[in-house]
Amino acid sequence: MSPLELVAENGLRAPDLTGDSPLAIRGMTVSYGDQPVVYSVDMTVRQGAMTAIIGPNGAGKSTLLKAALGIVAPLSGQVTVFGQGLDATRNRIAYVPQRASVDWDFPTRVSDVVMMGLYGQLGLLGRVRGLHRDRVQACLARVGMQDFGDRQIGQLSGGQQQRVFLARALAQGADLYLLDEPFAGVDAATERAIINVLHELRDEGKTVVAVHHDLSTVRSYFDDVFLINRRKMGEGPVEQAFTVPALQATYGGRLAEGQVAQLALDAG
Ligand SMILES: Nc1ncnc2c1ncn2[C@@H]1O[C@H](COP(=O)(O)OP(=O)(O)O)[C@@H](O)[C@H]1O
Ligand SMILES: [Mg+2]
Prior knowledge:
The chain is of the alpha/beta class and 268 residues long. It has a single domain, classed as 3-Layer(aba) Sandwich (Rossmann fold). The chain has helices at residues 3-10, 61-69, 86-89, 110-116, 119-122, 130-142, 158-172, 188-203, 218-221, 238-241, 244-251, 257-267, and strands spanning 23-31, 36-45, 50-54, 76-80, 93-96, 176-180, 207-211, 224-229, 231-237. Strands 5-6-7-3-8-9 form a six-stranded mixed β-sheet, sandwiched between helices. A hairpin with a 1-residue loop joins strand 8 and strand 9 (231-237). The longest helix is centred in the C-terminal third of the chain and has 16 residues, at 188-203. It binds adenosine-5'-diphosphate and magnesium ion. Magnesium ion binds at residues 61-62, 98, 180, 211.
C-alpha cells in the first residue's frame, strides 16, 4: 500500500515514509507457501525507544524481522531505515537472530564471532589491528564475557552464547538493534546483563527492537510494544497499547486465565 492509499483509507495523514524513523514498514506481506504468515503489516518504530514485538508462537514475529532486514523476500511491502532504503543503511543495523537458529557446531572462537561485527568497518580483507582487538575485548567486557575470547563458541552455555552475540552487535556500533527472543533459554544473570546493556543503548539514543515472549516483563523492560498475530494487532507506548483486551485479541484462547488476571493487576 502506498502512503497515498493509506491517507485515502484512514482519512488521516499517513506517517511520513521518508521521516527519520529508525524502522518503518509499510504494507508488509510475507508468505512461505500459499498462506501469508505476515499480512499487510505497518510498523513505525520510535527513535531512542525499546520496542517489544509480542504475539503467540507462529504469529510471524521472526518473519517480520527477517523481512525487515531483507533476509526473506516479502510478497509486498516497503522498509525504510532512518528514512532510507536497506542498501544505504545496512551497516547501521545489528541483528541478533533467535539462538536456536544458529549452528553452534561450527568451530569458531568467541573473539572471532565478535570480530565479525567489525567487518562492515574493516571490509572483508581489511587488516585486523590492535585497535580492533581492543574493541572486541571492550565489547566482550560490556557483556561480562572478557575472559572467554579464546573459547570455542560451541562450548559455551546458552546464556553465554547470547551474550557473545550481543557483543558482536555492539562491536558493529549500529544505531538500530534487532533482536529475536534475546532472553529465550538464558539464565537469570544473563537476562539481567542483556537488559542492562539494552537499556544503556537506549539511553545513548540507540533504538532497540526485540521479539519478546515473557509478558510479565514487558512493562519493566520496554517503552513501546508491537502486537502481531499475522496481522498487526496493536502498536504504541506500553501504557497505552499493552492492554488486556489487546492481548486477548492477539493471543486468543492461548493466553492463560492466570496470565490475564496478573496483567490486569499490573495494569492497575
Ligand atoms: N522457512 C520457513 N518455511 C516455511 N514456513 C515457515 C518458515 N519459517 C517460518 N515458517 C512458518 O511461518 C509462520 C510464522 O513463523 P515465525 O515468523 O517463525 O513465527 P514466530 O517467530 O512468531 O513464532 C509459522 O507458521 C512457521 O511455521
Ligand atoms: Mg520466532
